Amino acid sequence: MTTNEDAFARAQSVLPGGVSSPVRAYGSVGGTPRFVTSARGATITDGAGRTYVDLVASWGPALLGHAHPAVVAAVQEAAARGLSFGAPTLAEAELAEQVIARVPAVEKLRLVSTGTEATMTAVRLARGVTGRPLLIKFAGCYHGHLDALLAQAGSGVATLALPGSAGVTEASAGETLVLPYNDLAAVEAAFAEHGPRIAAVITEAAPANMGVVEPDAGFNAGLRRITAAHGALLILDEVLTGFRVSRAGWWGLEGQPEGWAPDLFTFGKVIGGGMPVAGVGGPAAVMDHLAPLGPVYQAGTLSGNPVAVAAGLATLRAADDAVYAHVDRAAGIVSEAVSAALTAEGVAHTVQRAGSLFSFAFGDGLVRAGGPRSYADVLAQESWRYPPFFHAMLDAGVALPPSVFEAWFLTAAHDDAALDQIVGALPAATRAAAA
Ligand code: PLP
């Protein structure tokens, strides 16, 4: 047994902040991160032997729950055949076929290892295809830690209250126009001024890195219309929403029924089922600009890694309609229970939902405004209510995302017992939030 305090002290002496990714350090909620030794189903267990119902799900990938038997077996079988070949495998084509079957707007897929690599590749591809330099992104949208897209990013950048990142040159930042989310007039104005120089608009399909902020009806379709009119590409970042909010991600809920598609999709998280797989996909006419067919270079020693691909394939194969129905229902139960408990304590809040993703924002002003629609709205909330709420839940054995700017993730493994534990922890936690 190792206490979390001992583990954190040891890790801090050799890892910056004691972690390999900033939000894990509990910076915005305070206290000591739980050093996890195992995870199964809906729970994680720390080195001190304590088990928690987990609402982080590895920040999304664990759609089926942790260590799903079919995924673990697929990984073990693949590992026994060899860890990495640096040569093509048919499993990569099978994974692409699975993605294309779910998201028919994708004709070809390039596999990479992280969501950051996927968006980086999509950006390079958009610039390569159009021959234009500029990008539009939206404040509060997080697309990974590539220089071009770190400006006013959500996620850890919001959690740590950073304006962006040191180390990003003015030249790089200067090629990214950051616009307010859900504001099509701002997009029209940017195109009116810079249209011939804009390579792409990149947007989270449904933002979940500034807390969840649902796109207004017609916003994504409007981006499609404007980009098409100006010869720019639309990159729909589904790293977080892809294969999570529906079989075909957010696009399956919105774009497919409405009859529009982006030029490029980026995928991550669920596509690897907890292993490092991500991808960029789209029509062959765009994707074939990538090397070795086209002039846009992209490569990776571990891209399409056979063990990781096996995990992704097993995850997508197991993610049937029942899984999505379960996760939707569980998200409804938890979000409604939290909201009811906050209301009972008189804590003004809004519930942000986008499919099965949800988060909460605190404060009267936001309630009066009908909930946050942009990053500026989100930042104006009473975020100080979250840390005491978070810690009261943790004390009761429920691990929430350690930041008010992150979505809560349910999985197929959140059964009635797990949901009951979450609901049972709420009265004390909402009292803490009210204080
Ligand atoms: N895009 C979105 C929408 C994300 O949520 C994330 C990560 O949270 C990324 C890109 C970056 O993915 P990764 O952390 O795998 O690099």
From TrEMBL:
It is found in: Cytoplasm. Its EC number is 5.4.3.8. It comes from the Bacteria. It is an enzyme of class 5 (isomerase). It catalyses: (S)-4-amino-5-oxopentanoate = 5-aminolevulinate. One of its GO terms (cellular component) is cytoplasm. GO terms for biological process: protoporphyrinogen IX biosynthetic process. GO terms for molecular function: glutamate-1-semialdehyde 2,1-aminomutase activity; pyridoxal phosphate binding; transaminase activity. Its cofactor is pyridoxal 5'-phosphate. InterPro entries: 4pyrrol_synth_GluAld_NH2Trfase (IPR004639), Aminotrans_3 (IPR005814), Aminotrans_3_PPA_site (IPR049704), PyrdxlP-dep_Trfase (IPR015424), PyrdxlP-dep_Trfase_major (IPR015421), PyrdxlP-dep_Trfase_small (IPR015422). Its main location: cytoplasm. The modification N6-(pyridoxal phosphate)lysine is found at K269. Keywords: Cytoplasm, Isomerase, Porphyrin biosynthesis, Pyridoxal phosphate. Pathway: Porphyrin-containing compound metabolism; protoporphyrin-IX biosynthesis; 5-aminolevulinate from L-glutamyl-tRNA(Glu): step 2/2. NCBIfam families: hemL (TIGR00713), PRK00062.1 (NF000818). Belongs to the class-III pyridoxal-phosphate-dependent aminotransferase family. HemL subfamily. This is Glutamate-1-semialdehyde 2,1-aminomutase. The gene is hemL.
